[in-house]
Amino acid sequence: MKASVSPDLCISCELCTNLCPEVFSMGEDGFAHGVDGDIPSDKTDDAENARDSCPTSAIDID
Question: Basic and acidic residues compositional bias: what residue ranges (predicted)?
Fold first, then answer.
């Protein structure tokens, strides 16, 4: 599974980075980004919680 964040929808609230810092981080552009590569298997639930909690539904997990 991979996580991605749409910069068109992200409002830089940092909720995802607070809920799952192993998967999401703030970029130099001021928006959240998913880690390169696959989500660690022990962080899948946390990443899905971050996706479900995102106020603008900017997170995709595939």
Answer: 40-51
The model's pTM: 0.94
End-to-end CA distance of the chain: 5
Return d(Cα 29, Cα 46) in angstroms, integer: 24
Residue-range domain boundaries for the chain? 3-61
10-62 pLDDT per residue, tens: 999 999 999 999 999 999 999 999 999 999 999 999 999 999 999 999 999 99
What would the CATH number be for the domain defined by 3-61?
Answer: 3.30.70.20
* Nearest by Cα to 60 from 40, 45, 50, 41: 50
Of the candidates 43, 41, 5, the one whose C-alpha atom is nearest the C-alpha of residue 26 is 5
